[in-house]
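In the design runs reported in the main text, the only information available to the sequence generator was the tokenized backbone. The following block is the verbatim input for one such run; it is reproduced so that readers can re-run the procedure and compare outputs position by position.
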């Protein structure tokens, strides 16, 4: 079983889970504004920095590691419990 959060950007709404907020505080995840374009997240992993676009899932692995996942792959791999 994993925990996951679907990255969305809604002004004035903060529904991010505490584990993601902690990762931001620790510098593991960075919010990247892009001016006129939608923002993204930079997620620093052991394999390097990965980017999450709006709509991607941020997965918290069994050891607390974070990584992005495309919605199509997420839907094909996981089911809600």
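Verbatim output:
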């Amino acid at each position: 079983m994993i925990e996951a959060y679907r990255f969305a950007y809604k002004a004035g709404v903060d529904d991010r889970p505490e584990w993601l907020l902690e990762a931001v505080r620790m510098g593991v995840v960075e919010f990247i504004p892009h001016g006129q374009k939608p923002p993204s997240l930079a997620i620093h992993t052991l394999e390097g920095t990965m980017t999450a676009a709006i709509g991607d899932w941020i997965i918290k692995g069994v050891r607390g590691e974070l990584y992005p996942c495309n919605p199509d792959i997420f839907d094909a791999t996981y089911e809600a419990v």
